[in-house]
Amino acid sequence: MVHYDIFGASGEDAPTIILSSGLGGSGTYWTPQIEALSEHFRVITYDHLGTGRSPGEVPEQGGIAAMADDVMKLAEELGLKTFSFMGHALGGLIGLEIAARQPEVIDRLVLINAWDKADPHSGRCFDVRIALLKNSGVPAFVKAQPLFLYPAVWMSENAERMNAEEAHAAAHFQGEQNIMRRIAALRSFDIGDRLAEITHQTLLVATKDDLLVPYTRSVRLSNMMPNAELALLDFGAHAVNIVDAPKFNKLVVDFLSRV
Questions:
Q1: CB distance 3 to 54 below 8 Å
Q2: Which of 81, 114, 99, 94 is nearest to 20 (CA)?
Q3: Which of 141, 114, 116, 117 lies closest to 129 in space, CA to CA?
Q4: Are 212 and 186 in contact (CB under 8 A)?
Q5: How far apart, in whole angstroms, are the C-alpha atoms of residue 47 and residue 54?
Q6: Kind and range of the H or E element at 6?
Q7: Quick one: what percent of the chain has pLDDT higher than 90?
Q8: How confident is the model at residue 198 (pLDDT cuts 50, 70, 90)?
Q9: CA separation for the pair 8, 130 (Å, rounded)
Q10: DSSP secondary structure, 33-60, as one string
Q11: In this structure, what DSSP letter does residue 30 have?
Q12: Which of the chain's termini has less CB crowding within 10 Å, N or C?
């Protein structure tokens, strides 16, 4: 079972949102969102299998569908009949899978730099990261990680944070097998033919300067999903919820609080 944390509102009727992170898998990714969201909702973060404090590993087969199963097991354990869901990149794919498979459990969706099918450019980035891991090892892999997450100027202004993140990522690396299976899940996911069936109110957040995922993937989602709206930001890169947390948090709270 995945490790989870609960913040904010309590009680059976409290509006609940589950947050699902990207390739790194750790629930701590959402630290910049916890305070703002907890003022309005019961907030649940969790560590994906084989990451953070969750033992085990991603199954060899199953991909994103198996990761969606983990979320549904968590919801069942917590007695959640409905919940909103916010996912970043890989986490967003999990949200799409749940919404398509079990639409009745999802209230609203927030998808950050997500996609229905991986862009060829993202595939090139995955190839580079795999080559670094296999040929140069974990230190090179984690040193390169911020390049795919943050704008250059922001990294320059937050050099000490970059060093701390690098040390933490190296010390808590999820393992080559787990990371390879998670990348394989990203590459094989394809939900394009089901997008029209996902009718939930959805906020898509994308950034024009995302190096890893072209923002056109979110444009495609907004065109194919009947009740999706796109917030396209100029700055923030792949991890916009960290780079500009105040703007991001306001977008999300306003969307989730809308009648």
A1: yes
A2: 94
A3: 141
A4: no
A5: 6
A6: strand 4-8
A7: 94
A8: very high
A9: 38
A10: HHHHHHTTSEEEEEPPTTSTT--S---S
A11: G
A12: C
With a CB cutoff of 8 Å and minimum separation 6, the contacts of 243 are 150, 151, 154, 235, 236, 237
| Amino acid of residue 122 | S
259 pLDDT above the threshold of 80: no
DSSP letter string, 127-159: HHHHHIIIII-HHHHHHHGGGGTS-HHHHHHTH
139-153 residue pLDDT tens: 999 999 999 999 999
- Would you tell me how many other CB atoms lie within 10 Å of the CB of residue 250? 12
For 31, residues 6+ apart whose C-beta sits below 8 A from its C-beta are none
What is the total residue count of the chain? 259
What residue type is assigned to position 5 of the chain? D
Instruction: Let me know: does 213 contact 200? Beta carbons within 8 Å.
Output: no
Half-sphere exposure of 143 (CA within 13 A, CB side): 7
Stretch (H or E) spanning 71: helix 63-77
Q: Indicate if the pLDDT at residue 174 is higher than 90.
A: yes
For 84-116, what is each residue's pLDDT tens digit?
Answer: 999 999 999 999 999 999 999 999 999 999 999
C-alpha to C-alpha distance for 203 and 199, rounded to whole angstroms: 12
CA distance 12 to 29: 26
Are the C-beta atoms of 72 and 4 separated by less than 8 Å?
no
Parallel/antiparallel/unpaired status of strands 106-112 and 201-207: parallel
**Separation CA 22–CA 24 (nearest Å):** 6
